[in-house]
DNA sequence: AGGCGGTTAACGAAAACTGTTTAAGTTATT
DNA sequence: AATAACTTAAACAGTTTTCGTTAACCGCCT
């Protein structure tokens, strides 16, 4: 039923969508509700997103540990720490402060509350200055 | 904890492995057994494989439905059917009989028993003669 | 033979995922 | 304004993953 991340249902829906069918038309064909088709389609795109992120991680696996942002840290201090540590390694970070904060928040939304870090965040950097968080 | 397909544990193990540590060394660091490190690493590679397959599917999403191999069909008849239908569409299949059978079996091992099909198999083809099965 | 690196199988518990339905909400088109 | 297309959220039951343990197994090396 499953190849890769996508269930049989999800592949089915994506194919019909590629053919230009509406969610209602697909629902009729596969004998379910249009709401369900919507859910399945959404789940499919979530899975595709996950697949991309996974391979993305592989490409940044050559990164080395830069520092740990401790719980309770202010985001602006975290940025300073990251720049400081990167400088020690003589690596130029690929992001300015603003983008760095955005990347931090996007990487793990649950770990941040306003300006503060709610859980330790590991920071990794590769020789190109690309960052990733774990 | 999860980004993409990989759990935090899995990313952790992959990073340490990239640094050249043995499973036993990693087990000591993360306080578990080497058997567990092995399992986690294997699961990580399974997930990476899944991610690749998922994106692979996306690239073949432009395929159109070619035919349905009905349950109980002999594999060799299935091959004939696929060639026949492809010819109707004036598309040259990218595989000879042998490779076609291999691709069929690999695509969904559970659906085949010896020379026979145990479950309906949908066959799709794109304009390059590339096949995929659902 | 014994140590080391790696793998596998079996099993339990907790967590996450899947397909559905129902119901309420957009947005776009006519 | 009305309809169609689409989105979202909550809740459910069933299934699958994940992490961990224990114990056994293989190949290689000195």
Structure description:
The structure is a homodimer of 134-residue chains. With 134 residues, chain A is an alpha+beta fold. The first copy, chain A, has two domains: 8-58; 62-133, no CATH class. Chain A has five helices and five strands. Chain A has helices spanning 8-18, 23-30, 34-59, 75-88, 97-107, and strands at residues 64-69, 112-113, 116-117, 121-125, 131-133. Chain A has a three-stranded antiparallel beta sheet with strand order 1-4-5, with helices on one face. In chain A, a hairpin with a 5-residue loop joins strand 4 (121-125) and strand 5 (131-133). In chain A, helix 2 (23-30) crosses helix 3 (34-59). Chain A is elongated, with a radius of gyration of 20 Å. The model of chain A has no long low-confidence stretch (mean pLDDT 84). Chain A binds chain B through residues 3-6, 8, 11-12, 14-15, 18, 47-48, 50-58, 61-62, 65, 107-108, 124, 134, and chain B through 3-6, 8, 11-12, 14-15, 18, 47-48, 50-58, 61-63, 65, 107-108, 124, 134. Chain B binds a DNA duplex (30 and 30 nucleotides) through residues 2, 7, 9-10, 22-24, 32-36, 38-40, 42-43.
